[in-house]
Design goal:
- By secondary structure, the protein is an alpha/beta fold.
- The protein has twelve helices and 18 strands.
- It has a six-stranded mixed sheet with strand order 2-1-3-4-5-6, sandwiched between helices. A five-stranded mixed sheet has the order 7-12-11-8-10, covered by helices on one side.
- Strand 14, helix 9 and strand 15 form a beta-alpha-beta unit.
- Helix 8 packs across helix 9.
- It is globular, with a radius of gyration of 23 Å.
- This is Cobalt-precorrin 5A acetaldehyde-lyase.
- Keywords: Lyase.
- It comes from Aminicella lysinilytica.
Length: about 325
């Protein structure tokens, strides 16, 4: 979900346009470039990896030169949108689909009364775009190179398969998709390793919460290995994980903090009373209850944090326990 934006403008007229854009996006956290704090190049360098979108009010050439050293992948790059200082044209430059750049471009054009300029082929042809669908549904695409193959099939008028992987489907499949056999297709799963089609675009919904427990002052490397092994053994991709949960006692545990920091996952904790009030069929441990106040930390915490159901029961490994829960989710069209 797009939330953190920054805007750069270089003239008085450009700054007036930038302020109109900011006023029209009240739901976003927006940082405005101030030249008194340093050069625009340094500003872009420091914000590129932490922003959801960067908006330039000025020439496209200026924007391209500033972002060029930092562009890496459509899966990680922020959306980049450029508009002239008069606001006549709003151009989607980078991460139009997965990054949400095209949607942001259209929204900004609506705010300032400009013309949205979008050049991605599926948008021009009014065709289904798998990466847009994945982004809109809160999913991750592990193998980005497959997007081109599926989009190419769509643009050639070939039927593209769709496998919901057991998840419920809401709405009608677009005309470009079929539930029948196809050479290229989209497969939804938590594992992200389906070979349903000859050319499979795997789509992983980011809907899993990990519940964890560990010994005090546990080793960070050991903790990471235990978590990754538990996920692999249960065919859950790390890209499906949206948060980590535990008991409040573990809020400052370094090994958990290191893991969450490395994989950019939020970490939430709960009191023993909150965990014990969580309904479900959980394993019981007198020892864990004596230490933490809750008879099961990992299972209870992931169910409570996700608001869903347990899909991986308590899995112990060398002083680390891991469980996983999944929140309710549908393939929406």
């Amino acid at each position: 979900m797009m939330k953190n934006l920054c805007i750069l403008a270089f003239t008085d007229k450009g700054r007036e346009t930038a302020e109109k854009v900011r006023a029209g996006l009240p739901d976003m956290n927006i940082e405005m470039y101030d030249r008194s704090s340093g050069t625009a190049g340094r500003f872009v360098e420091s914000r590129f990896t932490i922003s959801d979108a960067i908006i330039f009010v000025g020439a496209v050439g200026i924007a391209v030169r500033m972002i060029a050293p930092y562009v890496k992948s459509k899966g990680t790059d922020p959306a980049v949108v450029v508009l002239g200082e008069d606001g006549a044209y709003v151009i989607s430059v980078l991460s139009g689909h997965i990054g949400g750049g095209n949607r942001l471009t259209e929204r900004i054009a609506g705010i300032i009364g400009g013309q949205a300029v979008i050049t991605t082929a599926t948008d021009i042809n009014g065709a289904f775009a798998a990466d847009v669908w994945a982004s809109d549904n809160g999913c991750v695409i592990p193998e980005l190179s497959m997007i081109k193959i599926v989009s190419g099939a769509v643009l050639r008028g070939e039927a593209v398969g769709f496998d919901a992987g057991g998840f419920p489907v809401e709405g009608q499949l677009p005309q470009e998709l079929t539930s029948e056999e196809a050479e290229a297709g989209i497969s939804v799963s938590l594992s992200g390793n389906s070979n349903k089609y000859e050319n499979t675009l795997n789509v992983v919904p980011k809907i899993v919460t990990l519940g964890v427990g560990c010994h005090k002052n546990g080793d960070s490397e050991n903790f990471e290995k235990a978590v990754l092994k538990a996920l692999a053994d249960n065919e859950i991709s790390l890209t499906a994980v949206e948060r980590v949960a535990s008991v409040y006692l573990k809020k400052d545990e370094k090994c958990i903090a290191d893991f969450c920091g490395k994989y950019r996952l939020p970490f939430v904790t709960f009191s023993p009373d909150e965990l014990m009030a969580t309904s479900g069929d959980f394993a019981h441990s007198d020892f864990v209850e004596k230490i933490t106040g809750a008879d099961n930390v990992c299972e209870r915490s992931c169910v409570l944090a996700s608001g869903g159901r347990l899909i991986m029961k308590k899995t112990p490994s060398e002083g680390v326990t891991v469980a996983a829960a999944v929140r309710p989710w549908k393939c929406r069209f």
